[in-house]
């Protein structure tokens, strides 16, 4: 799907009533985007398959785009075969690419408050369409992971992603790093993780973002007993970007280690403790203190 001849804003509006002019043009172009989108036969088919009401001439562009994104998600969810899902992912990324191409010129236009609000509102819905393509079902991987990760990376790089949107997407990125060995997926997932951590730093004024820490804490609690080494490796990437985030996770990591040892009933897991200590060694004095506590545990168990 390619939508052409849409107007791209420039700075000519800054001469006369800049904010009103850009806002008016933004709404006008949004209506035009929606009109062109709803003329496509493939869009009609998507609405039909999803059993979502189709309006040939949508009166409310915002509502119409949300309905379209929802219809795409429902259609994807109803597909049964991997080949069909893979094809739908490819097509969906084309749709989202067109939307991103349209709204991108407005992202840096601080003169348009209403336009920016509308853009961020739309991006919120886009991030919630992507999440449905990014869900792991047990050990079954989503199709076209590399394409999805590449698209998410483009969004994170080119838009002012909100922390709440990172909360939606980061668990999927972490699962890619934990479960997938394909080099391209690993590389893209690592880049996504790095950009998301940096985005959270900007959004929180340099302080550890509470939401970011919460995502990692939940991830450790869910997978720490089974994928401990992979989690340590992931957190070593995070340490290089934001040491404080990992420091805030020490108590959760230590508890996960001890829970794992109790579950298997084989005493102290020396190999796992060494891997954990390697991570802690990057955390300054706080990490050294925790290493000492672990060593004291070992000494007490021997006695």
TrEMBL record:
Coiled coil: none
PANTHER family listed in its UniProt record: PROTEIN MMS22-LIKE
UniProt name for this protein: Protein MMS22-like
Domain of life according to the entry: Eukaryota
Source organism of the structure: Camelus dromedarius (Dromedary)
One Pfam family of this chain: MMS22L_C
Gene Ontology BP annotations: double-strand break repair via homologous recombination; replication fork processing
Domain MMS22-like C-terminal positions: 29-126, 129-283
GO cellular component: nuclear replication fork
């Amino acid at each position: 799907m390619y939508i052409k001849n849409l107007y791209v804003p420039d700075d000519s509006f800054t001469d006369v009533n800049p904010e009103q002019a850009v806002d008016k043009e933004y709404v006008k172009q949004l209506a035009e985007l929606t009109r062109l989108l709803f003329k496509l036969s493939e869009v009609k088919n998507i609405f039909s398959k999803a059993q979502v009401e189709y309006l040939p001439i949508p009166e409310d562009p915002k509502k119409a785009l949300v309905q379209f994104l929802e219809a795409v998600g429902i259609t994807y969810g109803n597909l049964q075969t991997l080949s069909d899902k893979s094809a739908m992912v490819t097509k969906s990324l084309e749709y989202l690419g067109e939307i991103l191409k349209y709204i991108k010129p407005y992202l840096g236009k601080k003169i348009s408050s209403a336009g920016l609000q509308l853009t961020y509102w739309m991006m919120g819905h886009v991030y919630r369409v992507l999440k449905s393509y990014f869900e792991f079902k047990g050990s079954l991987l989503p199709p076209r992971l590399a394409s999805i990760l590449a698209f998410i990376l483009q969004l994170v790089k080119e838009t002012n992603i909100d922390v709440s949107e990172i909360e939606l997407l980061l668990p999927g990125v972490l699962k890619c790093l934990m479960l997938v060995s394909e080099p391209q997926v690993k590389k893209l997932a690592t880049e996504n993780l790095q950009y998301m951590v940096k985005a959270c730093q900007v959004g929180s004024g340099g302080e550890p973002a509470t939401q970011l820490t919460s995502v990692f804490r939940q991830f450790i609690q869910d997978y720490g007993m089974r994928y401990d080494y992979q989690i340590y490796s992931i957190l070593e990437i995070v340490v290089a970007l934001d040491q404080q985030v990992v420091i805030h996770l020490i108590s959760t990591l230590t508890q996960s280690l001890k829970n794992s040892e109790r579950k298997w009933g084989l005493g102290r897991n020396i190999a796992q403790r060494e891997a954990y200590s390697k991570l802690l060694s990057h955390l300054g004095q706080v990490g050294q203190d925790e290493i000492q506590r672990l060593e004291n545990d070992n000494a007490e168990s021997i006695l």
